């Protein structure tokens, strides 16, 4: 995937929100003074959709296509969200 594709994918992910694992590791020194893993905590964290990313995504990639985005009804916006989620899923499936 080229840089432009990576940027678009990252913006789309941030615009729609995503889940990620957050890992916190705690180390202690063993008898030889070497660091040794003492605790590891993995937490699933949800990142909410970011309106700035939505705005940048529309301006950069969909500006002409979505000129009247601000006049969309709630139902139209929900349909657009579903469409974009489908695109993101297809792109994720294509990376595997």
Question: Keywords for this structure?
Answer:
96 residues, alpha+beta, two-stranded antiparallel sheet, 3 helices
Structure description:
- The protein has helices spanning 3-16, 51-61, 74-95, and strands spanning 18-29, 35-47.
- Helix 1 (3-16) crosses helix 2 and helix 1 crosses helix 3.
- Strands 1-2 form a two-stranded antiparallel ribbon.
- By secondary structure, the protein is α+β, with helices and mostly antiparallel strands.
- The chain is built from 3 helices and 2 strands; from the N terminus they run H-E-E-H-H.
- The model has no long low-confidence stretch (mean pLDDT 86).
User: Strand-and-helix sequence, N→C?
Assistant: HEEHH
**C-alpha Rg (nearest Å):** 20 Å
Largest β-sheet summary: 2 strands, antiparallel
Name the beta content range: 25-35%
Number of DSSP strand runs: 2
The largest sheet has its strands arranged as: 1-2
Number of helices: 3
- First-last Cα distance: 12 Å
The chain-level structural class is alpha+beta
What is the multimeric organization of the chains shown? single chain
Model regions low in confidence, pLDDT < 50 over at least 5 residues: none
Could you say which overall geometry the principal axes of the C-alpha atoms support? elongated
User: Helix content range of the residues, please?
Assistant: 40-55%
Mean pLDDT: 86
